[in-house]
Amino acid sequence: MEGADFGTLIHAFMEHVQIKENMDTTYLNSEVNRMVDRGILSQEGSKVMRMHKIITFFTSDIGQRLITSNHIRREQPFILAKDVSEYVGKKTEPVIVQGIVDCYFEERMVW
């Protein structure tokens, strides 16, 4: 599995992993099995997961901050109007930007 397919696999895992205090190899492997059972991940995909990279994320500063948050939001759509005049050098109508935020969390009462 290469490139975009691998990225899609990791994205699906990170979207559905249940966050808890101890995100160790045993727990993360059980989450992979849970996702295979539910059809979120394929059996093939489960065999190419790079758990050491996922553990590296969850042991990083941002991963630890995510783990300790009481409020986590994933896959949240957004729409905003952005003034791009400064980028194009003339006055323009606002540009509508829309997308989906993969993950954000509350920290010290700030989102």
Overview of the molecule:
The chain has helices at 3-16, 25-37, 43-47, 51-59, 61-68, 85-88; strands at residues 72-82, 95-105. The longest helix has 14 residues, at 3-16. The two termini are 35 Å apart. The chain has a two-stranded antiparallel ribbon. The chain is extended and about 55 Å long. 48% of the residues lie in helices and 20% in strands. The model has no long low-confidence stretch (mean pLDDT 94). It is built from six helices and two strands; from the N terminus they run αααααβαβ. The protein has two domains: 3-68, no CATH class; 72-105, no CATH class. The chain is of the alpha+beta class and 111 residues long.
Count of runs of 4 or more consecutive helical residues: 6
Number of domains: 2
Q: How much of the sequence is in beta strands?
A: 15-25%
Largest sheet data: 2 strands, antiparallel
**What's the alpha carbon Rg, rounded to whole Å?**
18 Å
Strand order of the largest sheet: 1-2
Order of helices and strands: HHHHHEHE
Beta strands, count: 2
Note the overall shape: extended
